[in-house]
Amino acid sequence: MTFDDSNAIGRFIRKLDGLAALPDRDKAALRALPLRLKRVPANHMLVREGDTVNECSILLDGFACRHKDTSGGHRQIVSFHLPGDILDLQHLWLSRADHNVETLTAGRIALIATADLRRLAEERPAIDRAFWRDALIDASIFREWVLNVGGRDGKSRIAHMLCEFGARWQAAGLGSPDRFELPMTQQVIAEATGMSLVHVNRMLQELDRSGAIVRDKRVVEIVDWDRMREIADFDPAYLHAAA
Amino acid sequence: MTFDDSNAIGRFIRKLDGLAALPDRDKAALRALPLRLKRVPANHMLVREGDTVNECSILLDGFACRHKDTSGGHRQIVSFHLPGDILDLQHLWLSRADHNVETLTAGRIALIATADLRRLAEERPAIDRAFWRDALIDASIFREWVLNVGGRDGKSRIAHMLCEFGARWQAAGLGSPDRFELPMTQQVIAEATGMSLVHVNRMLQELDRSGAIVRDKRVVEIVDWDRMREIADFDPAYLHAAA
DNA sequence: CGTAGGTTTGACTGATCTCAAGTTTGGTGG
DNA sequence: CCACCAAACTTGAGATCAGTCAAACCTACG
Description:
Helix content of chain A: 40-55%
Oligomer: homodimer
Number of helices of chain A: 8
Largest sheet of chain A: 4 strands, antiparallel
Shape of chain A: globular
Low-confidence stretches of chain A: none
Order of helices and strands of chain A: HHEEEEEEEHHHEHHEEH
């Protein structure tokens, strides 16, 4: 496993710092954590529902999602993740995985023993606070997704997903929220919004035709945020300014 | 505010104890917490989206839910709560409410300052652990709800909701999971499952006719758990044996 | 330049919604 | 104890959003 990891977890630390203003010694302690670095290919399962997990994964590069499946074969994505995100903080205190974690693209992850993270949080209040905030914001996003799939129509659902992605794209330091590349197929969008692939395709075209977005391959440009916010019923408050 | 509160928070402490095996001195510390007790009527808003909240509410008696609304007027319930549940642990670290908390029935709640809870968690590892587990299980339930509203058909959705309610009814010490009274109208079930009232009514009748459940007013008896589990695609693992 | 994966289109189907009208239930005052 | 009222529940019929099936079309890449 050789690649440039001189500052591999920099984005992660920046994110925690944004959540709870870490003192320099806390950042140093994070950098000093023993971690296993891994390159992972696209569409690679990192955690499987039912696994016993004693490490948390941090996404250094690339994109990932978490999903659950019904016995009938419907796959529901419950969250997307961008570089810097902790993929499974829940394993800090719950060792049995209740859902799957999978990469969307090739990337790099860092694995840290939950015992190490717990000790760190115990000793360093700012880190504890950052972990708490991260977990609670995670939950807030799930609530918004329940509303999204339960209460919005197809066009609105997809628009909402795009707005969230743009907002988090920016929060993760990847660039402007107005223009980003979706690291996923339309099938994946369908799995995240609880819609069929065909309908996703048609609703994307409608958003395009309505002038709210312009698509070029998988690059999405939100050309009219006001209209987009209205179509999507998007209010970023649920991201608590830090997701 | 006068009512028998000699052991009002007993159920809450029992729940935390189940999550993290509290030493007696931790239980005593919980009992010693300064708290505001309140009687609340049915359909009473405890927290409104956007509020700044510096207390956490514990549901002592009665039932409650949390919900969000779209600008189009669709109300989506994102969770139900039974006696002993913390209604808004997220306010421990996020003071801005991102959703509403409302009672379903008349009941009693205890309000505890988040500062007090944070101090307690800092000093007492078992309590910290219990809070963490509670928050993480809360999130796990949200994920299952995303799957439920995003990936299951009407009949299955309602069946799943009933299975979860039965399981938590038992976990809360209210009785057998086979027979319970739903403290809500069919309209409320519709808001939780993202369905129309009319369709909820029809799907309940189908569950009844199929022999999985028997209804009498709002009392539901699950007479065939095997069939119900199959219809609902219900696997209680996501409750982490403690919700 | 062939192939596989991804996207787009068309036609048909169906689950679920909406609207609207009953019917039953539970609570309240006489 | 009964009459009444509002809320909750049930039923029917028609409309529609979204799903399924099937085929065609891109486009990246070996």
